[in-house]
Design a protein that fits this description.
The chain is α/β, with parallel strands linked by helices. Helix content is 40%, strand content 20%. The protein contains eleven helices and seven strands. Strands 3-2-1-4-5-7-6 form a seven-stranded mixed sheet, sandwiched between helices. Helix 4 links the parallel strand 1 and strand 2. Helix 2 crosses helix 4, helix 2 packs across helix 9 and helix 6 crosses helix 8.
């Protein structure tokens, strides 16, 4: 395991056709994340006057699909410009979009590498999108995010707190099977500290919810957890027997043996 690529490079490798099976297993649980975000506010009000949006690290387009289904959006056309360093993700998101969203421009890059002459946009969001930004580049990524909004724009970032299952499980993996090697995912607390350093004003509130799989869905649980780690080589049995990862899985088991994945997510509003 010592020769595995670090976090960002592993994530890039898994946003590919080869990683589709575990991506689909991941979304058996993670679709709940986007549904909760779609229900977290009055999106018609938030998007008032914003007909073009930048979706930062768009992934496979699950958030706008959840908004179209659960967000109560009015009948209007919203053009979504897509940014992601993965060409696979850009293509997936573009195919996934449904009305009122239509795909606009694509930017195959990280947010910190977005060209200076791109934008601004009246609305910019990043939903569960910035975990693999290297710590030394977090300030630059958030600064460019705010620049992309322009003086009249608004921004929304959804990012898990450090005690959420997703982030705690990844840290346990690095400390255990990776023997302390590797870069942890960024936390909401680290984003908040970066905004404070940069002097960027924000509002923050948090939501809590639990993703679940039944006791007979071990294959899906394995795929979900592998995707949390961006490492398909680790079996569920290995995770459960690991002295760091195993207790996290066990303490969140449902009474019937099902899997529970508690999340606490910070919602940042900018602009």
């Amino acid at each position: 395991m010592s020769d595995l690529p670090d976090t960002f490079d592993r994530s890039m490798a898994h946003w590919s056709e080869a990683g589709r099976a575990e991506m689909e297993a991941f979304y058996r649980v993670a679709t709940r994340d986007y549904r909760e975000l779609a229900r977290s506010r009055d999106w018609n009000e938030w998007l008032r006057g914003c007909d073009r949006i930048l979706d930062v690290a768009c992934g496979s387009g699950k958030f706008p699909v959840a908004l179209a289904t659960h967000g109560g959006l009015k009948d209007r056309t919203l053009t979504l410009d897509l940014l992601d360093p993965s060409a696979f993700s850009l293509a997936e998101a573009r195919r996934a979009l449904v009305p009122p969203f239509s795909a606009g421009r694509s930017f195959e890059c990280r947010i910190q590498d977005l060209p200076a002459d791109a934008g601004p946009w009246r609305a910019v969001w990043a939903t569960h999108a910035l975990y693999a930004v290297p710590p030394e580049e977090l300030d630059a990524a958030l600064e460019r995010f705010v620049q992309a909004m322009g003086p009249e724009g608004r921004g929304f970032i959804a990012h898990a707190h450090g005690d959420s299952f997703y982030l705690a499980f990844h840290r346990a993996y690095l400390r255990g099977l990776r023997k302390g090697r590797g870069t942890p995912f960024s936390t909401a607390e680290e984003l908040q500290a970066a905004f404070d350093r940069l002097g960027i004003e924000y509002q923050i509130r948090s939501i809590d919810y639990v993703g679940e799989l039944g006791p007979d869905e071990r294959s899906a649980a394995q795929g979900f957890l592998q995707r949390c780690l961006f490492d398909e080589s680790v079996s569920l049995q290995t995770m459960e027997s690991d002295p760091r990862m195993g207790p996290l899985i066990a303490k969140n088991k449902a009474p019937d043996g099902g899997f529970r994945f508690p999340q606490r997510v910070a919602l940042f509003d900018l602009g």
